[in-house]
């Protein structure tokens, strides 16, 4: 068995034919059967639903774009244009890293102190470690909020008109994106590099759709972190502790759903439902209209914002009430 | 070249010098307008401290004191200026690290054991852990003492105005980097990808690369080309270190050189501090080939500053408008360039663009680039956690750089750029490799997400 990162891959010991048979059915089907009048006779059968592309460059690129496409698009369009947002992004990643460090320390200490030979205990420890890690991530999200709040006040105090060049809501979004990017990178990049190498997925009876589902889970996680950032900061700013707890609970639920992992109907679909609901929640928190039709007529004043330059966004007044939309 | 003719010595003195050249604060205060003109007129990048007594610009927004509302506009400018400068350093540091990581991951030559430098004579193939540790500490002591000796030698040469010697040394060492090391690098890349290239073509390519590099670094050239060459030679140097430094020695050397950097720059009798102060007294710039400047190019001819200065496009500006930024090296463009960039808005009111553009931009020593890349490259080469460790070290170094620039904005004098970043990098390397990696691997194996 492989001593590397994933236990689902086995380095090829089969003949190339066996390898091909394990891979994309389409590839096998397109093998030319030159016989009938020397023409290609494709026996392409209807591809099975959600067939995993298998290994190779196609898998790597496809899964990479699925997992990180939205995140990088958000980064390039909204964050890369403003140096202050890039700094906040890096700071957010740093906070997530510290939180995961502490979480893994807890898990590591638990593993060292426990009986290594007991697999159920080890998996229980893993679940415990994951839960602790989730709670620590949220705690560090709060710490990030505190730091950015202070930064916001500092920026406001040194600016000419008393307004900081970046609003707390923008900071919330960037911080959430930072957590999402670094969390997705840590979860996904190793799997992506493994998908490049030679190997066979699921040869021990595991699901052959490992890579593509990992990619979708990573994308969901990135987006969820972004939304959680927006909601959480808003909750902290306005003292809505229920919303804050909702974020924590939703994170725990997401992580717990991934524990049902090979049973993708129960893990992937609910996670995407949760993502959509959280997206709607974050959208309404950020001031989006609750009625869909006004969205299309673009009459809602909040929609006149948009990310045009700095200082755009709702301003939170000192008493926590929402200020008028500023431009 | 240096006296012994080996590249390691060159890089030692280069790195030892570099690490001090953290940007002088003058760059933050150039917009103050007329008051700074006299200072900027004498060229060079000596830190301007007189007008800075009212400002403590802080782009991270911690407590700031404002003296007068009249300066508030400039303060806001210097704040935005500060954030832009952080990014102006993030980009080259990131690029250098990307080059090093990409090379380490693809070209196996730099991860193969190929002997050791003469500065690290003790081998690490010993039987016991204690012996290995002892050997690595001894290697570090030798390396650091070589660096200290070379730095003191350089400072003495500078003090006694042996400029020709220093310039000859620098030219010979960049010759070696640009021709020999890049030839080796190209050869290894060709071997990896099985590309066949005939010697005449190779000679032409290397000659062009090297000659243009020498011209850009030591004489005049477009700013971005000079920056690109400095990044490339830093990456080449870092790859040499990664290949030839044994494992444990590399980590101990990284720690020791951060401590040395701290001492050399901050202690009153530290060699690097004396170098910076001597340069300030004489109103001269420090050597062009040893500093990465985000906005200026530097001349070998130290006496004439106005004739050869580049229009200083902010690097972020040029990132945003890649196709549009001109880097014509003519004096005519200097005055026309100023209104184009938004950050220069405050300076457009000053009559002469020359003096203003002198001090703009952040300067970071090449040794800092080299050691950052060594850390990240070693992390990606040797860590079994692979990309997790590399990413963690990368973020740690960027945060360290950010904090260093923050301190620079507060203290307004030359600061060592290595200690904070390397400390964070080392902490994150060891903790991610030993704690986070097994945790994340276990989670990933079962497809659990946290």
Automatic annotation (TrEMBL), chain A:
GO terms for biological process: Notch signaling pathway; protein processing. It is a multi-pass membrane protein. InterPro entries: Aph-1. Keywords: Membrane, Notch signaling pathway, Transmembrane, Transmembrane helix. This is Gamma-secretase subunit APH-1. Potential subunit of the gamma-secretase complex, an endoprotease complex that catalyzes the intramembrane cleavage of integral proteins such as Notch receptors. It comes from Acipenser oxyrinchus oxyrinchus. It is found in: Membrane. The chain crosses the membrane at residues 55-79, 86-109, 121-140, 171-191, 211-234, 241-264. Component of the gamma-secretase complex.
TrEMBL record, chain B:
It is found in: Endoplasmic reticulum membrane; Golgi apparatus membrane. It comes from Acipenser oxyrinchus oxyrinchus. This is Presenilin. Residues 13-25 have a biased composition (Polar residues). Keywords: Endoplasmic reticulum, Golgi apparatus, Hydrolase, Membrane, Notch signaling pathway, Protease, Transmembrane, Transmembrane helix. Residues 1-10 have a biased composition (Acidic residues). GO terms for biological process: amyloid-beta formation; calcium ion homeostasis; membrane protein ectodomain proteolysis; Notch signaling pathway; protein processing; somite development. It holds the Pfam family Presenilin. GO terms for cellular component: endoplasmic reticulum membrane; gamma-secretase complex; Golgi membrane. Its EC number is 3.4.23.-. Belongs to the peptidase A22A family.
């Amino acid at each position: 068995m492989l001593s590397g990162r994933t236990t689902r891959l086995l380095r090829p010991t089969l003949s190339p034919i066996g390898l091909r048979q394990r891979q994309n059915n389409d590839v096998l089907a397109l093998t030319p059967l030159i016989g009938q009048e020397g023409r290609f006779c494709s026996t392409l059968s209807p591809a099975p639903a959600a067939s995993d592309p298998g290994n190779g460059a196609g898998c790597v690129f496809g899964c990479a774009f699925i997992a990180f496409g939205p995140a990088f698009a958000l980064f390039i369009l909204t964050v890369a244009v403003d140096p202050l947002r890039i700094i906040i992004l890096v700071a957010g990643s740093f906070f997530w890293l510290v939180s995961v460090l502490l979480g893994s320390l807890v898990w590591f200490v638990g593993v060292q102190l426990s009986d290594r030979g007991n697999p159920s205990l080890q998996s229980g420890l893993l679940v415990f470690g994951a839960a602790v890690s989730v709670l620590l991530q949220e705690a560090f999200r709060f710490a990030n909020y505190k730091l950015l709040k202070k930064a916001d006040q500092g920026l406001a105090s040194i600016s000419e008109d008393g307004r900081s060049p970046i609003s707390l809501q923008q900071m919330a979004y960037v911080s959430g994106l930072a957590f999402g990017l670094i969390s997705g990178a840590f979860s996904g990049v190793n799997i992506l590099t493994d998908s490049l190498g030679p190997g066979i997925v699921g040869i021990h009876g595991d699901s052959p759709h490992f890579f593509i589902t990992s990619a979708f889970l990573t994308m969901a996680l990135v987006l969820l972190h972004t939304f959680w950032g927006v909601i959480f900061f808003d909750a902290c700013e306005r003292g809505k502790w229920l919303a804050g707890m909702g974020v924590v609970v939703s994170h725990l639920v997401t992580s717990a759903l991934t524990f049902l992992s090979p049973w993708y109907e129960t893990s992937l679909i609910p996670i995407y439902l949760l993502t959509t609901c959280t997206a709607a929640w974050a959208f309404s928190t950020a001031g989006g209209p609750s009625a869909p039709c006004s969205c299309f007529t673009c009459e809602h004043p909040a929609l006149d914002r948009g990310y045009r330059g700095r200082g755009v966004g709702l301003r939170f007044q000192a008493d926590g009430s929402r200020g008028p939309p500023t431009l | 070249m240096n006296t012994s003719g080996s590249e390691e010595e060159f890089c030692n003195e280069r790195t030892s010098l570099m690490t001090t050249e953290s940007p002088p604060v003058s760059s933050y205060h150039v917009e103050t307008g007329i008051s700074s003109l006299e200072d900027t007129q004498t060229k060079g990048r000596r830190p301007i401290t007189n007008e800075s007594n009212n400002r403590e610009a802080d782009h991270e927004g911690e407590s700031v004191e404002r003296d007068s509302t009249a300066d508030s506009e400039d303060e806001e400018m210097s704040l935005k200026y500060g954030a832009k400068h952080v990014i102006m350093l993030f980009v080259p540091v990131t690029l250098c690290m990307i080059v090093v990581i990409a090379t380490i991951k693809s070209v196996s030559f730099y991860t193969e054991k190929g002997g050791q430098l003469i500065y690290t004579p003790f081998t690490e193939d010993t039987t016991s852990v204690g012996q290995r540790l002892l050997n690595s500490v001894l290697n570090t002591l030798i390396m650091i003492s070589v660096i200290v000796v070379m730095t003191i030698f350089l400072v003495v040469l500078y003090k006694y105005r042996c400029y020709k010697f220093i310039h000859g040394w620098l030219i010979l060492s960049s010759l070696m980097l640009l021709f020999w090391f890049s030839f080796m690098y190209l050869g290894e890349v060709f071997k990896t990808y099985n590309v066949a290239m005939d010697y005449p073509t190779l000679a032409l390519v290397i000659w062009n690369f090297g000659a243009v590099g020498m011209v850009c670094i030591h004489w005049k050239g477009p700013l971005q080309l000079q920056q690109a060459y400095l990044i490339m030679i830093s990456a080449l140097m870092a790859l040499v270190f990664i290949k030839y430094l044994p494992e444990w020695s590399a980590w101990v050397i990284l720690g020791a050189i951060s401590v040395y950097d701290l001492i050399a720059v901050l202690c009153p009798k530290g060699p690097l501090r004396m170098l910076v102060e001597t340069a300030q007294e004489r109103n001269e710039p420090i050597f062009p080939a040893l500093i990465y400047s985000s906005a200026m190019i530097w001349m070998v001819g130290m006496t004439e500053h106005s004739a050869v200065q580049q229009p200083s496009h902010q690097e972020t500006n040029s990132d945003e408008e890649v196709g549009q930024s001109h880097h014509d090296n003519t004096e005519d463009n200097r005055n026309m360039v100023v209104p184009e960039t938004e950050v220069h808005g405050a300076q457009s009111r000053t009559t002469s663009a020359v003096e203003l553009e002198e001090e703009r931009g952040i300067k970071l020593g090449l040794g800092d680039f080299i050691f950052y890349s060594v850390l990240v490259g070693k992390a990606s080469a040797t860590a079994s956690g692979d990309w997790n460790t590399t990413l963690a070290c990368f973020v740690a170094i960027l945060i360290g750089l950010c904090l260093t620039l923050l301190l620079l904005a507060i203290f307004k004098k030359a600061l060592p750029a290595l200690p904070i970043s390397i400390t964070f990098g080392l902490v994150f390397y060891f903790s991610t490799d030993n704690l986070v990696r097994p945790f994340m691997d276990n989670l990933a194996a079962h497809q659990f997400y946290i």
